[in-house]
Amino acid sequence: MVHWSTLPATLLLYILGTVAATRPETFKEELTLRPLRDGKVISRFSFSTLLEGGVPRNPEKIDAGNIPQHYTLFPLALGQVLQEYATTELHLSLNAGKWDYDRWGYPDEQEVGTGAQLWAWIGDGGSSSVDERWKGLRNALAGLFCASIGSLDEQRTTIPKLAFAPEGDLPAWTLPHQLRHATLPSETVCTENLTPFLKLLPCKGISGIATLLNPHRLFGADWHGMSVHVTWHAERGVEVRLAFQAVFDPVRLSFDKKRDWSLQSIFGRPIGKACPVASASRIVVELPTNEAYSIDPQPSTVQDGKAIYDTSNIESELNLALRWPLESEFVYPLDPASQPPSPLSVQRTMAGTSQSRGRLSVSIRNSLPSEIQAVYLETMPWHVQFYLHTLKISNGGSARDDLLSDIAYTPPVPHGRPALFESVLTLPPNSTTQLEMEVMKSFLRYTEHPPDAQRGWDLPPAVLVPLADVLRAPVNGSEPAGRRARIYTRVLLVDLATPDFSMPYNVIIMSCTLIALTFGMVFNLMTRRFVVVRLKTGPVAENAAEEKDKSI
Amino acid sequence: MEDSEPRKRFRDPSELSFESSFLRRCILAAYWVVVLLAMPGWWQTTSIERLSLPTSQVLAQAKREISFPLNIYLSSNADDTDLNALSSKLEQLLQTRLSGPVSVRASKDVPVSPDSGSYSVKLTGEPGDELSEDGILLHHWDTSDSTATKALADKLTALLSPYADTHEREHVVSKYASRYRIAFTLLNEDAASGKSALSWEIRKALSLHIRPLLKRLESLHNFTIESQVQYHAPLAFSPSVVSANGSEVYGLTPEDLTVFVNSAEWTLSSGVTNDPVLHLLLFVPSPSRRPLHILDSAGVLTTSHSFILPQWGGVTIYNPPADMQDHFDLTARQLNKIVPIFRNQLSSLLGVPRLPKGIKAPSPGCSVSSWQIDALLRRRTVENVREAQQTLESIVKLVEQIENMPVGKDVKQDVEGALRALDQAFDAATLSPKLAFDHSNDALTLASRAFFNPGMLALLYFPPEHRLAVYTPLFASATVPLVVAVLREFMAWKKQRKAAAAAALQAPRAS
Fold it and tell me: For the whole model, what pTM was predicted?
């Protein structure tokens, strides 16, 4: 509805809208390339658009109608979704593959849990409830990104208390904000998700760094994932950050088993044109240490072992290349790294062969010389139920119940709500802490099985959030402060009892036959006439039965 | 010798009480009674709920046509004109030209009642025709002119029924919706090649040019406005090169215009609402394809730089000055030339009639007179009524044709509600066009809701044969013994009667 109506509140909103006409929107893009010890290259694209002075919509004003939206760089399609469902903060990630913390270290984009993950801080109040808007939000995002996020329904939605703190600010409205979090580990990422993702960028995939987002190469990478983050900062405004992260293996791509790479060899194309509206655009390459290498062309600046290229003005095609000229063939390093890439390492397994019981075991290795406190979050769909009394925690082989504190547990509701287990773990230095719990696998209804029922169910990753910032090296200056690092475990596959799917028809036919048989017997008994047949006495009749029933 | 012993022990089964044929027949009958009694229940539980729709009412309603009585009040500055004679003459002329009933009355003091389909015409001596601020048509009256009455009738016809002679433009007007989203998009074909528009001061221009139009149309629609800028909007085809005035320019042929919007690459669609969207695009061609012009069917350059895509939106092409060296921002002043084109496109798309030639608008520029709004209101009412009638008729026909289609309570209620709203619209037509419009809108909403009711599709593809097939193992094996038992009993009864008849025949003989 147009807000030139006489309602003072809407008029005020409109005036605010016109006053903000001069508010600048800025767009920044950055590509980080990090060669790893094992020859792989981590690439991370980050596109952030800041709507200066933008304010999230207060849900209490939803009934007042839509506010006119005028954007230049901010993606309108996303702005419409945020406005329609009055969402303050939103994080969506779609990943494929398993992030190997032990070899690749801690990622620049921390949301690396396999599958889809969506969490949002939504303001309460107004005529539509938080859950209604959460439902609308995930359906709208499912449509926007062509992903099955719509199936992140009540059976997947949890409200963790500690692990997902807001990364921006939350406006102080009369009612507090609420968190909704859901994961879908079986979701995969592909071109159909990347195309709408690119359309949200001001320069799409045509100019600037986004040119390199070539689906043919990205989806052939060892690991790839994309994420969308919307945050609000009181002093800055609404920020949308779109990120894409992929782990490439140049050794696999090259013919002569070298680990040399260039933009052309990794992404299949160089950067041809600069994005005209990017206020900052750069490529950062982390340079190898203690090795002979050559980088071409010469970087604009080199700082702290990083080569920085300014790509806001490109005269000719930029095809960045990093070579190890002394190496004739890449040899995989067999000796362990002097320092583990990630100070925390988590392994989670589901043990047990039966289809009714199992044992969840998590082992967390802390290789730091100091004690770490971390939040451990486990969300389980209702068909895997914890036996909380069997929870055992041990360190170095001896039981240590004191390591576990602040347990919060939301029991599952069959066919309704997932289970949520959240607690604070104390991880002693240089040791492995073991967590074990028995689980029960539920019996599903016939219609609740997925189409490929025999494959089993993917269980969402567990999340470990260290309370002290120990994971990231201080190199990430661009990261906003106050954001806690998260470690995602691998997803699990659980085998549930699957029925024979022709069962309903068998049951119908079987019971029909039984009923028909019973009916026939009873009916026959009730309507049959019994008569005595007298046979002539004779030698033959001697043996014959005296009396026999005979129906007429 | 032991033979007689058991014979004495066994009683003749036919003498047992439960072996009497009467009891057996009772049992058999009881089975059949249960089966027959269960039949209606089975029929009830497996049949589809099909409530009867008011078919005859719908069909009767579909034949009705809505018309608005128009009252015109004539007044004059000069006292020498015979207004009464003129009125009757004008009424005769108008009745032949307008479809609805018209009455023309002479009136000294001009009655101003905006919502009742009455209009005022004032004859003045001043030259030129003008619509005054309060909706009075000031008509230049020249007593010496013999065709003056006819000229006035022509003017009034053009004002009161402006859609009669514009049938070819009819398809441009977007279908009625109570809510519209209006999306303004600045499209740069290729901003990376330079000399493109990086931003526009659209808010100022909108509040100056578009806002008054939308405010006038508030009684018909609710609007949501949005705008965005795109930096890469490639065309799906290459414009042809033509030479004009010795220089090479690029041209869009009429065929190109039909495929101009590249919906695969341009992100124009909205994902959050089902409201129809009217797109107004400002297209800046890439520097290598400037200037871009529109060609007519003969391949000759036209002066126009904009075109309308019927029911979808409008496109305007902006060729920046050739001496532009770098990227630029479109200022509100530059947009002042472009946004009025948007306004004209928007009013065409929303069906706002144009003022006939020779009549001045109350204030120059954007405002729409109450005569135009009334004409639009009447037109939309007629459209909505027709649409609602057709929808209702299709529901009734569809339900008649497809026997498996369920008709629930909500569908029935919606159909009845739509019929009621239609009746109200017909009643209100004589009182106020606005009221009639509101009712017609209700009728259309209810009728479409009934038509698109998801419950009507529920069992469309689940034929009763399937249900029977699954339960055949039960039905077949249970009915066969029942039927056979009846046949058997019937034979036994016939035999018994024969035997009884034979015995009866023999008995008198024996006696």
Answer: 0.84
